Automatic annotation (TrEMBL), chains A, B, C, D:
Entry annotation: catalytic residues: 57 (proton acceptor)
GO molecular function terms noted in the UniProt entry: ATP binding; metal ion binding; NAD binding; NAD+ kinase activity
Locations listed in the record: Cytoplasm
Keyword Amino-acid biosynthesis recorded: no
Protein's recorded name: NAD kinase
A GO BP annotation: NAD+ metabolic process
Source organism: Sedimentisphaera salicampi
């Protein structure tokens, strides 16, 4: 098996983990290159079998963008902390990577969303996101207003600090902070969640991912921006409309057979943790 | 075209609407029977072409249960108020029903969920729901605890006043009151939403409807119950486990081509209504 | 110093804690009686100096009701778990109780609310609550409707599963499960929080505790009830109106100088716990 | 009676309203000056009896800052839309202003909060706010972290897009969009509400307004700012600590005897509006 990897070796603990991984892989897999920082790894399509990302969920998010077009699955190795995406641990390589190196692994397909921001100058910004597209206002209190359409059908307008459209993968990121629901991995849907909406009655909406979402800025302010996976791709004041739809591609990730998405929720977000109430309940 | 209908003619405005409908249908469709109150209309399978429900969303909810097995689509006629399910208006029959009587209509398939409550005495209560399965505690402060599994994978435990598992149709009913998201009609998912959970960190979870949800009561109290579309089907203290899964059947509803689900949200729930802020925004 | 105590000695760990406490108190304080289960301890006014409650927050809630009229402060001793009210630990008596037995302690005054439920038969149920008055519907989906007035000024009507009116002490109990805010101890306010409201736009309201809150049932169902600190005091269908106002009395509790209310929030409710995000933040 | 007024007469409808007001006031009150745009009107202390603000709530917010030190109450006149602060209508001057010009009016005291941002260069920014102090992060996903203390007691840290500390007046503004509770006017409290917190378990906290709130930036990003009533007063990266406490002054506003704060909530925010459910309830 041939593999590329992504590791920010300027970080000491990552460099150490790379050493551990290299030793472990010796004689089992051929390590081609550290692609960290490369924008595009499509040239490894058909050459590498898998990509290994050493770091946390943030590292995988970056690698996912580089791997678009390469069509190879990624395995995320964390350094001590379970992640939503970095499901394997550098401390327990032997538990799973012997099998992975033999090509025995299950792949989970993660929904990707394409975003096209059509600008007033006639150009179009195109980007693909694994987590979310967020439209954020600039300085506070300068609320922005947008119109939302789903499959050309007007849905509602939204006044507030902005809006997030997330994938199931991204539902546990910014969406969750904004009050959105958790969406399980295999649901074919995206969620539209407002950011500090002025309307008391606005609620997140879960929409079939095969639908096309259009967002039209009505009133914006300086500093408002369109962001994909946390990176600004356009100033909102230059944008005429934003189209978000399912990407024909998926991001493929090698899943850990010993861990469920619920484990990660409980561990990372302390989701649904019980209070120290027991005594009361007994009384 | 042959049709059955559902109408609670003891209600004066419903009786009047039936008269209006009868007159309008004369010579265009053959009206077979008022099936209101009948538990099962499966004998009309292959005989009636459609079912017309005259009343509000609640009437359609009841009719949906009767029509299981009949396999005919329903058209809901409201009396003045747009509904999520009762999409047609008695005041504008001519706009849509000429076409419907000619068999020209689009059908929307609504996800149904089956619930099996396995009881300690070995019997099983089975029911099908269009909106939701709700597990509710009895008198307040006697909180209940349940374990939740999805496809045999432990998800979390839930301590509080109960839990709701809803379909997209039911997402705008009890689920919404409990803080859950709106789920668009064609999303293949159900939502698990806690009722007044003790955990500060519990959030609604949207799960693929092809998954099987199991709920195990851990500690319950007198008066706790399992409810399908608002009807109690079992006392929770008699129940060992509750299995919820997608029904192989759908509820088919004739949709109004001039109205979207977003219209109903805006009208019925005053969803996403803007505040009277305009003046401020201009300043 | 003379003291009474409250301890449910049928519970083994409570009985053991009582023994530890008795030994510790020997020669330092005179222990008069175990008042557990007594409804009224007003006869100890002027006789006992303090009341010691051995148990959790639930035990103190019960003792608070018994101590109305006695006018003596209570010290809560938990058995291993910090509580909002049970601030002292049986394992560290020497740290605080030597001082307490010498009369050196600070007292925190907790707001109590009086509730008068005026019944249709002309009688009035009166009760005093430390946590909250909750009005709950019976079986699910049989939503209830109430009109709320503050100082005779109509505030709003509320359709849903009910309503909670809580003190600052009770803000971390049922109110929090229902989505209400945390109210710090010394705020002179109560919070009105709806239970699963039908209105998307309902929000909790914090009201000056010197105001009088009136609640009028508009439509109720069998099984709806009025509850004070978790105990049913009236069936809602028998009730014409419910008046809630600040009690002229307070519940006095001896506070732990080494612990803040924020400690209890962080410990008991895992309030504001950070996710395991650190790695991401560094990236 | 002598009065000053605030009116942005560049706005046509405001200029027209000023004319209506002038005519109405002729012979009843002496109009001194349009103070719109003036930063400080303290020189009118003892000279003018009241200030009249013609515009919406935003206009009054601006005027409130100018009137600090003048010690005269303000009456807000809206142009067609009821406001929280602009309680009188230009269309119904005769209903209330004859009495007001005779000095017969009730004044409502609004809590003001002082904010001191101590900067790393040793200087201090001081500002007084009627609505809120908001600390906001810059570009999205660059979350910030702050430590919060109340009366020198550590409360919690907060990771997310920022934090809002609001007065009761401000509770219906940014705080409400961020999920905070409504706080009635006469409650002596402020509310600390997080903006898109990373912690699932963070809840708004209502704190006695006599307490001192200290906020310490732990990790910030470029573009993070400290804002008072929507105006940026400092870049967060230059700030060492932020102290928020009750101002010894109040903002005095002439209240409309025919309108309650609940009316404004229902009108402006469509608070607690019932859904179009009636039909269902009847069924």
């Amino acid at each position: 098996m041939k593999l590329i990897y992504f590791a920010d070796t300027k970080r000491k603990e990552v460099a150490e983990a790379v050493e551990i991984f290299r030793k472990f892989a010796e004689g089992k897999a051929e390590i081609l290159e550290n692609c960290f920082g490369r924008k595009n790894c499509a040239d490894y399509a058909g050459i590498a079998d898998i990509a290994v990302v050493i770091g946390g969920d943030g590292s995988i998010l970056h690698a996912a963008h580089s791997l678009l077009g390469a069509g190879i699955p990624a395995a995320g190795i964390n350094m001590g902390r379970l992640g939503f995406l970095a499901e394997f641990s550098i401390e327990h390589l032997e538990e799973h990577f012997n099998q992975i190196f033999e090509g025995r692994f299950a792949v989970e397909k993660k929904l990707l969303i394409n975003c096209e921001a059509a600008k007033k100058d006639g150009t179009v910004e195109r980007v693909c996101a694994l987590n979310d597209i967020a439209i954020n206002s600039g300085r506070p209190f300068n609320t922005i207003e947008m119109e939302i359409e789903v499959n050309s059908s007007p849905v509602t307008s939204c006044v507030g600090d902005g809006i997030v459209v997330c994938t199931p993968t991204g539902s546990t990121a910014y969406n969750l902070s904004a009050g959105g629901p958790i969406i399980s991995n295999d649901v074919e849907a995206v969620c539209i969640t407002p950011l500090n909406p002025h309307s008391l009655s606005f609620r997140p909406v879960v929409v079939d991912s095969r639908k096309v979402i259009q967002i039209y800025p009505i009133s914006v302010n300086d500093g408002s921006s369109v962001n994909a996976d946390g990176q600004t791709i356009a100033e909102l004041k230059d944008v005429e409309s934003i189209k978000i739809e399912k990407s024909p591609q998926n991001f493929e990730i090698i899943s850990n057979p010993d861990s469920t998405e619920w484990d990660a929720l409980a561990y990372k977000l302390k989701w649904a943790q019980k209070p120290h109430y027991k005594e009361n309940l007994e009384e």
